[in-house]
Specification:
By secondary structure, this protein is of the alpha+beta class. The protein is built from 10 helices and 10 strands. Strand 8 and strand 9 form a beta hairpin.
């Protein structure tokens, strides 16, 4: 077993354990490992006092409530659902997904994911989960367009003032390649048109922009010029070329997107073409486009007044 990938904290913990412990645990059948971990969790939970729960509620960034007004958030998300094209299927995702949902399809470290003791992980990105659902549906029918709104939890520390959990409104489209970049171009037009509609209605005064970066793909670059741009030009939200972007290379393939407000100063959404459904279905002809928007950030810049409870209006 390769110890070179361990962090300093991991090496310290394993060094304190009896020799062979790591190999023994790694070799346990999944059901036995779950039983072991559940026993440990039950024993540790039995020692927790109410004061401990209050302290964790106050100090643990994973469990603290978000700062957004849920009524304003619900209003914005409800309108986003209304603006979706009729052929987009809504999906109410589970709070957990199979362990490895992110890391198996994309270059994401499992250390960024909150893993459970039951061979699952807390949903950290709805686009990964929707891609799995899209891959399953693609086996039964033609192209698939899915949407979901979900609160996600991520393990990495974003800073003292940033919540570890937040809501994302996500789109995933999957279709079979028709050659010459026609399918990716059509999917890009679909997603970009939707996000332009959302921004134009819900954040018109926040200087919203859509950004696109071609990732070393000559065909996608050509379709962006002769197909995608003509379909988007002249709209209320500009489509800005961002050739200097490097983030997302290796994660997205062919093309990456960003959604911003404040004239590009604040990112509120991201996306791009991926090979996820191709890998999930073992079919290199599959094309998949994912995109998402942080609805709490959209609420903050939507220009809509906060909803006031009825009891405070008297």
């Amino acid at each position: 077993m390769d110890r070179g990938e361990l962090t300093g904290a991991e090496r310290r913990v394993w060094a304190a354990m009896p020799a062979g412990t790591r190999d023994a645990l790694a070799g346990l059948p999944s059901a036995d490992l779950r039983t072991l971990l559940l026993t440990v969790a039950r024993d540790r939970a039995a020692t927790v006092r109410p004061a401990d729960v209050v302290r964790r509620w106050r100090e643990d960034r994973f469990v603290r409530p978000a700062h957004v007004d849920p009524r304003a958030l619900a209003q914005v998300e409800a309108r986003m659902w209304q603006l979706l094209p009729a052929d987009v299927s809504g999906v109410e995702l589970s709070p957990v997904v199979p362990m490895g949902t992110c890391s198996s399809a994309a270059p994401v470290s499992q250390n960024r994911i909150v893993t459970t003791m039951r061979a699952s992980e807390v949903l950290s990105d709805p686009t990964n989960a929707l891609a799995i659902e899209a891959a399953l549906r693609r086996r039964r029918r033609g192209e698939v367009h899915l949407a979901a709104a979900h609160r996600v939890l991520r393990a990495q520390d974003f800073g003292p003032e940033v919540s570890a959990h937040f809501r994302l409104f996500a789109l995933v489209s999957s279709a079979r390649d028709a050659g010459s970049g026609v399918t990716p171009a059509r999917l890009l037009i679909r997603h970009l048109t939707y996000w332009r509609t959302v921004l134009a209605e819900l954040a018109p005064t926040a200087a919203p922009q859509l950004h696109v970066t071609v990732l070393d793909d000559k065909v996608i670059r050509e379709r962006l010029v002769d197909t995608v741009r003509p379909a988007l030009d002249g709209g209320p939200v500009p489509l800005v070329d961002e050739p200097e972007r490097t983030r997302g290379r290796g994660y997205y393939t062919g093309c990456a997107l960003r959604i911003t407000v404040l004239g590009g100063g604040l990112e509120i959404g991201d996306g791009g073409l991926t090979d996820w459904t191709a890998r999930l279905n073992g079919d290199a002809k599959e094309r998949c486009l994912v995109s998402c928007l942080a609805t709490e950030r959209l609420v903050a810049h939507s220009g809509r007044p906060a909803v006031t409870p009825q009891r405070d209006r008297q």
